[in-house]
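Worked example 3 (structure in, sequence out).
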């Protein structure tokens, strides 16, 4: 379908404002997982704090924020699930005092975690509010015209224009979406990516579910990363650990979108997890404490903590750890 012209007012209206930090934070608190003070001698950026409110998103809110979109019934009885994603330029404070000219979907990095059920019909309206052409390329099974790459379907979406991607939610698993315009590494590394979960028809066991998108930032344009994190802000889960309950099933949706480094990894202290590559099977491939991911690879981790206390997680590449990619689970009774 043709790209449709879009005025500034329409574009503003197309950007959802309902996932603000305050709302997400209050639902976070409603789970009884309030703040835990950190700063007890572990590695951190030296002094100062990132202003999450000024950034417009909080990595603690992103952890448990799932966007189910808006649903309706199609004539054939299937569920149609719809979202609007808008690309825009955004200044993000990545570490105390370190500002980065980012590009983001819906004002946050990673973009919203879209969540659907296997077999539903999905419709995503994409509005480009940036100054460069962008797309959304979804992983999954879909027609070529819906692939969100230049030269296919609507191809590149020009600034101020919009398009619609529509396809079936297949296969069940953990996927991702990202811009696919060249230079690709830059369009991705600027922040245009997010996670996309397709729940199986027979749901997974109830769990405390978390999303971590492992990423990094090239703050001096040398095509190498100066900062590493899960969900953008380095040491966010170290300064304030993630509270989980002892013996409760924790399910972590782990995605690697890191540019400029060949691999990334996740290592957990004091515990092991079952690993489900791409989340496409309910049978774990491994019981382990470390998983290594190439860019675009992702998997589901399931664990229960038998001991209360503070347990570290981090990339097992020490360089990444020391530059931000580490945090703690605070296991409580
Ligand atoms: Cu782009």
């Amino acid at each position: 379908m043709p790209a449709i012209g879009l005025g500034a007012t329409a574009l503003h209206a197309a950007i959802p404002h309902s996932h603000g930090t305050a709302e997400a934070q209050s639902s976070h608190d409603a789970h009884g997982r309030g703040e835990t003070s950190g700063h007890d001698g572990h590695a951190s950026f030296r002094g100062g704090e990132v202003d999450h409110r000024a950034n417009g998103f909080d990595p603690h809110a992103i952890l448990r924020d799932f966007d189910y979109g808006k649903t309706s019934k199609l004539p054939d009885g299937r569920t149609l699930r719809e979202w609007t994603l808008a690309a825009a330029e955004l200044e993000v404070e990545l570490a105390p005092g370190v500002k980065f000219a980012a590009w983001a979907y819906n004002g946050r990095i990673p973009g919203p975690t879209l969540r659907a059920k296997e077999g539903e019909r999905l419709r995503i309206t994409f509005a480009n509010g940036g100054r460069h052409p962008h797309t959304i390329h979804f992983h999954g099974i879909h027609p070529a015209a819906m692939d969100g790459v230049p030269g296919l379907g609507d191809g590149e979406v020009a600034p101020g224009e919009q398009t619609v991607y529509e396809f079936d939610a297949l296969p069940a698993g953990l996927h991702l979406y990202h811009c696919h315009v060249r230079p690709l590494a830059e369009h991705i590394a600027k922040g245009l990516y997010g996670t996309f979960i397709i729940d199986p028809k027979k749901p997974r066991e109830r769990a405390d579910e978390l999303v971590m998108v492992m990423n990094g930032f090239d703050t001096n344009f040398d095509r190498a990363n100066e900062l590493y994190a899960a969900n953008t802000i380095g040491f966010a889960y170290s300064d304030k650990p993630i509270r989980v309950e002892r013996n409760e099933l924790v399910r972590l949706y782990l995605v690697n979108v890191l540019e400029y480094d060949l691999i990334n990894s996740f290592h957990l202290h004091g515990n092991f997890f079952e690993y489900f590559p791409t989340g496409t099977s309910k049978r774990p491939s491994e019981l382990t404490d470390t998983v290594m991911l190439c860019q675009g690879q992702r998997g589901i981790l399931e664990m229960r903590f038998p001991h209360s206390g503070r347990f570290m997680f981090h990339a097992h590449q020490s360089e990444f750890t020391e530059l931000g990619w580490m945090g703690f689970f605070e296991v409580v009774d």
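Notes: The longest strand covers residues 79-95. Residues 249 and 304 are 5 Å apart (CA to CA).
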